[in-house]
């Protein structure tokens, strides 16, 4: 049995758990939109996917599952879940089971306003929440709730962009700031549904925080609930926790399973204030608190594999020992892989000028030394050619390429500019940019690619030879022309 | 050679590095005010210390160093550094070297206003910083700086309590909020020096962040600088980084060493904007970025041990390979040790009442079932006895004890109430509270300790027997009196 984790992020320990479960009987594959993930080092096989929002995302995954004989897909990221849920049947058709809750269940989890309304309707305690700033302020005025209150994105995750307002002035400011934050981050995709109702104001509870793993089988039948007292948090994830024996939390878990009808794991944050258990947040997937259950003897990966094989799961597989305290320690791993490269076109001449100014200093001689006016150069290449920029996962420009594709007589593309920031050399930035440039040339009807290189630039000549170019003639007394015939794939 | 890390926190990897360096020739000890640290599992020996602010802190460490033959002390926490620097000679007297920079150097690092003034005076680039809200606002008005600006505690650490203000309204509100935050956290200790000047407003730079390890030997002579490009951050610590070859950063490191005169490691955050390198922050200790240097072949622990032994350090020991990318992965560890216990007296009758109400429900029968009025009970025991509360590191009440110490005839203390939250059973909460209670009884002139226990409470009787109590007589038909003679120590 082969299992694929999508949006695996940093959860290398889950890969490890499934590898231990499968042993020699199957492989664990991981997929992520960035390869900068420790999980890539642990998995049997890994793949960098298009972004979740990309129209090719699902077809990419389907293709991958087909050619790698993936039996089951598990996603670890909230944004990924609804897209997989919607496309579950397409995976079924190729024999791949997506272990994901129904779309409606995921929506109730991801949309924190729906979480509030739905759980309230079902009689489950949840902090008082407002979707309208005016409603919140009038309730604060008449004393129904009191400061501090939390201001957070309705479709947010964990503690990202959450503010604590201690008075009305702060509340108004944080509300406006959160609105701007949403529009500047990927949260805008989710919030586009209803931007005016994309911020929640929620009472802040003072109590002890617990985490639950509410476990259903793959047919949404309740199995058990593991409760952990959170001892320390870090970046919104549980860093240190201890399994506890608190019957009221088990009862809450069973009730949640009953109203949520999820599959496998439902990760729940709970605040216990005096004797009441308030649900703070739910995620229909493995959460950052699962390893604490695993450490206490629970083996959900094994149960999932058995369920997939239609085998029965003994009670002991999902039974925890209590008072087991765990902590997440840091372990250094070396990433052998290339960092993420996003190669895109620059279409705006001003932006092109800025980029040429930044990258030309790495050339020898520089454009300025050659007496080239960068503004008009940028405009010219923008109009008659193409400019490719290569950035890494944190949007640092790593390389810049300028080319012409307007030779409709000889169908020869011409490389005018290629510069890689020395900080990023050795990462194949130049190679990947050239490959993209050649593809683009073909798409523009070009059949050959030509470039000029200084004779003294030994490394450059070697690089272009490696890329399939050959020296065809002297360009000047100091430089050669190199040339390559382009082939479709 | 034995080495002690104080305020070791989560840095288990440093313990590991030093253990690898020392091999069988010495031990690595760790000290922390909380035992909830993965470093405690890795170290050869560990000890929970008083808080750094506690008057007994240094004498505790001196005693520990003496009895454990500690040759060198290294601290990993900013607040700890100046206290150790001030007391360096007292450690020297007992033969222990504290590897710490001079007090003045530490002050320049810890006090971010001093960092700004000092580096500016020395001609090193640093973001424009204001200590007065009015100055900041007028500079923003006249365009010398522009929004967004960062609002942060002058004595803060990392990204704790830092706000980004995008306009004047936000700036004023965040300034007020930061002032309140400082007064509500441990930052108030540092900020007490000058509370009106305890907040900084700093321009926000947009550029690439780098981390430096600027390495001096133990006599403050410059050795080398390791530069790393930060690829991802997490909780204010470097999560993913790659070593780079950037001569301007090496030059900056050398200049910083020259003006700072630090010892061993100076951890520096740098923003590179176009061609300028701005120093953002400095810490006169091992920082969260050191493991990336270590992964790239640098071995500062080995160099430190050699320097302590007056051996020479070959250049290769502190030479990095560039383009080595590392990431911090998560590894689960089980904490075998007891969580931190803070046992303190409750002096306020209202607070006592609240605590009795919380803890009495774990008793059988409860006080309420026995018809006891909890309010007057709390008042009585507050006046004539003592109430001990046991909390863990995150301030959860774990146990409550009430006792009388007013029997001046028979000098017999009387245990009136002992309840441990079932979530925390098995952690020796009861045992530690009883030990504290007995100590308190002795301090109040008592010579014996007496208590009543139900005959059916087999576990309770066994527990008190384990604590040295014996059954002396029947109290009621359902209960015994148990008794113990108290001894000094």
Automatic annotation (TrEMBL), chains A, B:
GO terms classed as biological process: SOS response
Keywords of this entry: ATP-binding, Nucleotide-binding, Transferase
Keyword tRNA processing belongs to the record: no
GO function terms (MF aspect): acyltransferase activity, transferring groups other than amino-acyl groups; ATP binding; metal ion binding; ribosomal S6-glutamic acid ligase activity
Residues of the ATP-grasp domain: 116-309
GO CC annotation terms, alphabetical: cytoplasm
Source organism, top-level taxon: Bacteria
PROSITE patterns, per the entry: ATP_GRASP, GNAT
Signal peptide: none
Domain N-acetyltransferase: 344-487
NCBIfam families on file: PRK12767.1-3 (NF009404)
Name of protein: Acetyltransferase (GNAT) family protein
Organism of this sequence: Hungatella effluvii
């Amino acid at each position: 049995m082969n299992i694929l984790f999508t949006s695996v992020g940093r959860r290398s320990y889950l890969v490890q758990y499934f590898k231990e479960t499968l042993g020699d009987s199957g492989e664990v594959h991981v997929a992520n939109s960035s390869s900068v993930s420790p999980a890539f080092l642990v998995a049997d096989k890994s793949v960098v996917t298009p972004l979740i929002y990309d129209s090719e995302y699902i077809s990419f995954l389907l293709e991958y599952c087909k050619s790698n004989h993936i039996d089951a897909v598990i996603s670890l990221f909230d944004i990924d879940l609804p897209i997989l849920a919607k496309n579950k049947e397409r995976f079924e058709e190729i024999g791949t089971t997506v272990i994901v809750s129904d779309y409606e269940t995921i929506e109730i989890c991801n949309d924190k306003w729906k979480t509030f309304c739905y759980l309230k309707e079902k009689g489950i305690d949840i902090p008082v929440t407002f979707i309208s700033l005016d409603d919140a302020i009038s309730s604060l005025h008449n004393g129904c709730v009191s400061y501090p209150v939390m201001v957070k994105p309705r479709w947010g995750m964990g503690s990202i962009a959450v503010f604590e307002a201690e008075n009305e002035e702060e509340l108004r400011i944080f509300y406006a700031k959160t609105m701007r934050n949403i529009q500047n981050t990927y949260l805008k995709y989710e919030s586009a549904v209803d931007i005016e109702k994309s911020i929640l104001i929620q009472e802040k509870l003072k109590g002890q925080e617990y985490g639950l793993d509410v476990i259903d089988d793959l047919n949404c039948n309740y199995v058990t609930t593991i409760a952990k007292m959170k001892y320390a948090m870090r970046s919104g994830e549980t860093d240190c926790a201890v399994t506890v024996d608190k019957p009221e939390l088990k009862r809450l878990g069973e009730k949640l399973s009953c109203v949520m009808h999820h599959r496998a794991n439902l990760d729940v944050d709970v605040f216990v204030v005096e004797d009441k258990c308030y649900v703070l947040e739910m995620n229909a997937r493995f959460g950052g608190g699962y390893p604490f259950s695993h450490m206490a003897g629970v083996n959900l990966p094994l149960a999932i594999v058995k369920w997939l094989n239609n085998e029965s799961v003994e009670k002991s597989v999902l039974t925890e020992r209590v008072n087991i305290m765990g902590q997440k320690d840091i372990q250094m791993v070396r990433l052998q892989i290339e960092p993420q490269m996003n190669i895109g076109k620059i279409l705006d001449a001003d932006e092109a000028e800025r980029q040429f100014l930044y990258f030309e200093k790495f050339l020898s001689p520089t454009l300025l030394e050659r007496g080239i006016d960068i503004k008009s150069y940028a405009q010219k290449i923008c109009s008659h050619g193409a400019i490719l920029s290569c950035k890494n996962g944190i949007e640092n420009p790593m390389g810049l390429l300028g080319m012409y594709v307007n030779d409709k007589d000889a169908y020869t593309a011409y490389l005018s500019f290629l510069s890689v920031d020395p900080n990023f050399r050795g990462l194949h930035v130049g190679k990947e940019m050239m490959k993209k440039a050649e593809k683009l040339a073909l798409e523009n009807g070009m059949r050959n690619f030509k470039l000029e290189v200084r004779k003294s630039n030994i490394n450059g000549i070697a690089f272009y030879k490696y890329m399939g170019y050959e020296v065809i003639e002297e360009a000047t007394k100091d430089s050669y022309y190199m040339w390559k015939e382009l082939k479709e794939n």
